[in-house]
Amino acid sequence: MHSTGERTVLVLLEEAPGGEDHLLTYLLPSSLAPEVVPGCRVVVPFRGRRSAGIVLALDVPVPSTTELRQVASVLDPEPVVGGFRAVLAEWLAARYLALRSETYRLFLPPGTPRKRKRLLHLAVPWPRFRQRLERFILPPEDRERVLTVLAPLAARDRAPETIREGLGALSRLLEILLGEGYLVWREPWQRSGPAARQVTFLRLSGKPPWI
Length: 211
Known about the structure:
Helices cover about 25% and strands about 20% of the residues. By secondary structure, the chain is α+β, with helices and mostly antiparallel strands. It folds into two domains: about 10-105, PriA, 3(prime) DNA-binding domain (GIY-YIG endonuclease), CATH 3.40.1440; about 120-185, no CATH class. It has a five-stranded antiparallel sheet with strand order 2-1-4-3-5. A two-stranded antiparallel ribbon has the order 6-7. A hairpin with a 2-residue loop joins β3 and β4. The protein starts with 7 loop residues before the first strand and ends in a 25-residue tail after the last strand.
């Protein structure tokens, strides 16, 4: 629950887990309020990890009974996708039926999304991940190759280039595993930690109020 006097922000996650946009409402700590404006990038908790997102709107109305989590930090205090860029990103998403997270990323300045390369991270326990791998219809030698190349993910995150080099033509499986949520991207500023407590997010749809 939150009090009616607390400020809120509508955040579009830069990544699209499961192949769909995630627009979520978070509480805005008073310490971060002066830095946050529509179009800036923030770090927010999502499914037990930290994710980057773009602020679409401030002071979004939500029921006081809704349990919200707080924005963790501000990546870019200056708006990187605000004003006409945001309007154009919305138009592209509507015109070409694209994900909003994809169209917004088009307008991020070079070098803004990440200063270092992101890594592939195992999002589920290895036994469950292995069960999913075994459901792929593959020749025995290809199945063994996939298990051998992806097994190191159980111990630590891996660079996608290393994984793709090892899988070769089987690299297409990575997109399937990412889309199904078995793998996720790990940004340089994300840290491993215990799973966060499950809370209810308020999902908003439609165009943000400032367009």
